[in-house]
């Protein structure tokens, strides 16, 4: 399916199809199941193949007038509502993130539906609606938001806006626009042009998280066309979008999946498009907000392959020359894999745990305070000439990675060489990434190698969001798929920063990695792992 739904929405809005209070929209009403664009889906429909079965506490926060705690046992989770003062002060709306047994995949038509408990008032097509933006993510850090339209400029009813009715035929791609018992459909094709999707951070074949972000409906929050969104505001008591975790047989279904990610290990021959069992680690919220650290389990099928073809992982714990002087750095070798050295460049094995001291003298510390999963030793690269040479016949599968303390604190605070990201106002659109590129010869590009596969980019800091509260610096260990690099004999690094001067990057160009997983090529061919997706996991800050 192409982008027909959102294209029609934009075309209709541009043509002035909507009127501000009349029943004039082209979208579905509160219980309209026949609308060709966004027809409601009854909770008991047999189109649903699974339901969201968890609320991710690390990606959920209730606003004022919201619930005091998460309820996964059938009660309502109210995201909260903001008054005019709180909106003016920039208080963040409440949000809630759900997870799934297997996940959502892009397929024909709508891929999932979101339910709320709204009621028709005073009459169809008006709904006492509490609306929410909908966002999707493969990795729990990068969320693509569905484009939306809401052109109402008034409400129906005599009891004020908080108890008013809103014409849902003027609302598109916002959760909560349908009455209780009817789900609002969402088609992943509608986010196919999102930069996070185009850049590979969000994989539409493997959506593991759906986030619902409440919209305080006084018009301060906008749809994709710049229209102020109205809904039942300001509500009394607990307010905002109401979510109840459940399925089609319960009194309050939550998020129903229509097109699901295939079960891990369903078939060895299907593993080229396989799935992952992911272990999610909860982490605290705040300016350095936590993402998730992941351990990939390849559908339980790796263990079934011949032992000679099993993946193996470099955890660097056997390295004893730690925190080597970069002025005389010779690199190191681990399990036949060579990490190059160089004069103030290349790789060292490190074990620094200092997360608070800024500056160059703390260059050997990982910002999470340890190696991955609490281990002691990790590998640390400095500069764009850092290269990993792989043995012949071995293919990269995945690695864990994070920022160093030196880099992270430079980004957060600035130093004598580099700016604090965001600038004085916090609005500078700063970005810091490192791209891993595979080459068919040892030594990377400098060794005369040609690029293999597709490079993989890791985002260590991103301050490009219009909403500054979304800006982040990575400060937990994340896991990234390296199979796009193909049959690489070496992996080269290239850093990018928006903070440059005199043709040089001012941001400290360091990267820490751990648990580099490789597989001999016979095992890769037997298992079909070349197309396997391991979700990118990073931590926001």
Could you explain how this protein is built, in words?
With 541 residues, this protein is mainly β. The protein contains 5 helices and 36 strands. The strands form 10 sheets. A 7-stranded antiparallel β-sheet has the order 23-24-27-33-29-30-31. Strands 22, 25, 26, 28, 32 and 36 form a 6-stranded antiparallel β-sheet that branches. The chain has a 5-stranded antiparallel β-sheet with strand order 1-14-6-19-2, with no helix packed on it. Strand 7 and strand 8 form a beta hairpin. The longest helix has 11 residues, at 4-14. The radius of gyration is 25 Å and the shape is elongated. Residues 11-23, 265-308 and 523-541 have low confidence and may be disordered.
**Mean pLDDT, all residues:** 85
Shape: elongated
User: How many strand elements?
Assistant: 36
SS-derived structural category:
mainly beta
Provide the spatial order of strands within the biggest beta sheet: 23-24-27-33-29-30-31
Sheet of most strands: 7 strands, antiparallel
Catalogue the unreliable spans.
11-23, 265-308, 523-541
Cα gyration radius (Å): 25 Å
> How widely separated are the two ends?
36 Å
Count of helical segments? 5
Beta strand %: 25-35%
Set down the secondary structure blueprint.
Layout (H helix, E strand, L loop, with lengths): L3 H11 L26 E2 L7 E2 L2 E2 L20 E3 L5 H5 L6 E5 L12 E3 L4 E2 L5 E3 L3 E6 L6 E2 L3 E2 L15 E2 L3 E2 L9 E5 L8 H4 L10 E6 L3 E5 L5 E3 L11 E3 L10 E3 L19 E2 L17 E2 L14 E3 L17 E3 L2 E3 L6 E5 L27 E5 L4 E3 L4 E9 L2 H9 L16 E10 L11 E13 L8 E2 L4 E4 L8 E8 L2 E2 L2 E2 L4 E11 H7 L14
Antiparallel strand pairs: 1-14, 2-19, 3-5, 4-18, 5-15, 6-14, 6-19, 7-8, 8-12, 9-10, 9-15, 11-13, 16-17, 20-21, 22-36, 23-24, 24-27, 25-26, 26-36, 27-33, 28-32, 28-36, 29-30, 29-33, 30-31, 34-35
């Amino acid at each position: 399916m192409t982008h027909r739904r959102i294209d029609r929405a934009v075309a209709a809005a541009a043509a002035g199809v909507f009127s501000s209070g009349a029943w004039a929209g082209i979208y579905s009403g509160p219980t309209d199941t026949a609308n060709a664009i966004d027809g409601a889906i009854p909770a008991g429909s047999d189109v649903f193949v699974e339901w969201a079965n968890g609320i991710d506490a690390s990606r959920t926060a209730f606003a004022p007038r919201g619930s005091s705690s998460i309820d996964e046992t059938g009660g309502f989770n109210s995201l909260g509502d903001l008054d005019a003062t709180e909106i003016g002060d920039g208080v963040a709306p409440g949000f809630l993130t759900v997870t799934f047994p297997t996940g959502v995949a892009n397929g024909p038509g709508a891929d999932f539906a979101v339910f709320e408990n709204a009621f028709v008032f005073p009459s169809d097509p008006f709904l006492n609606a509490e609306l929410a933006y909908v966002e999707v993510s493969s990795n729990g850090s990068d969320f693509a938001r569905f484009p939306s339209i809401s052109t109402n400029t008034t409400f129906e009813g005599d009891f004020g806006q908080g108890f008013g009715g809103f014409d849902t035929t003027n609302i598109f791609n916002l959760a909560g626009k349908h009455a209780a018992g009817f789900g609002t459909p969402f088609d992943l094709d509608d986010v196919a042009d999102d930069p996070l999707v185009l850049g590979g951070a969000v994989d539409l074949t493997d959506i593991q998280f759906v986030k619902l972000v409440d919209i305080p409906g006084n018009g301060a929050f906008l749809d994709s066309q710049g229209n102020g969104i109205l809904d039942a505001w300001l509500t009394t008591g607990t307010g905002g979008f109401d979510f109840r975790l459940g399925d089609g047989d319960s009194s309050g279904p939550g998020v129903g999946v229509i097109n699901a990610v295939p079960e891990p290990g369903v078939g060895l021959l299907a593993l080229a498009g396989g799935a992952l069992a992911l272990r999610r680690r909860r982490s605290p919220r705040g300016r350095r907000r936590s993402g998730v650290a992941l351990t990939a389990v390849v559908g339980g099928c790796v263990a079934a392959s011949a032992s000679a073809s099993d993946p193996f992982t470099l955890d660097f714990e056997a390295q004893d020359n730690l925190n080597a002087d970069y002025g005389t750095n010779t690199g190191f070798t681990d399990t036949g894999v060579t990490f190059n050295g160089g004069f103030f460049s290349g790789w060292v094995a490190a074990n620094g745990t200092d997360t608070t001291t800024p500056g160059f003298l703390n260059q050997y510390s990982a910002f999470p305070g340890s190696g991955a999963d609490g281990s002691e030793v990790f590998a640390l690269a400095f500069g764009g000439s850092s290269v990993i040479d792989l043995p012949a016949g071995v293919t990269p599968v995945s690695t864990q990675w994070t920022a160093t303390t030196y880099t992270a604190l430079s980004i957060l605070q600035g130093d004598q060489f580099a700016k604090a990201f965001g600038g004085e106002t916090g609005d500078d659109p700063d970005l810091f990434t490192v791209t891993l590129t595979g080459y068919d010869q040892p030594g990377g590009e400098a060794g005369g190698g040609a690029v293999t596969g597709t490079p993989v980019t890791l985002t260590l800091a991103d301050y490009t969001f219009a909403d500054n509260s979304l800006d982040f610096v990575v400060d937990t260990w994340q896991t990234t798929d390296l199979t796009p690099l193909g049959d690489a004999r070496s992996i080269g690094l290239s850093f990018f920063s928006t903070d440059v001067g005199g043709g040089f990057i001012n941001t400290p160009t360091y990267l820490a990695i751990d648990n580099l997983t490789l597989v001999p090529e016979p095992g890769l061919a037997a298992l079909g792992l070349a197309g396997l997706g391991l979700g990118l996991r990073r931590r926001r800050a």
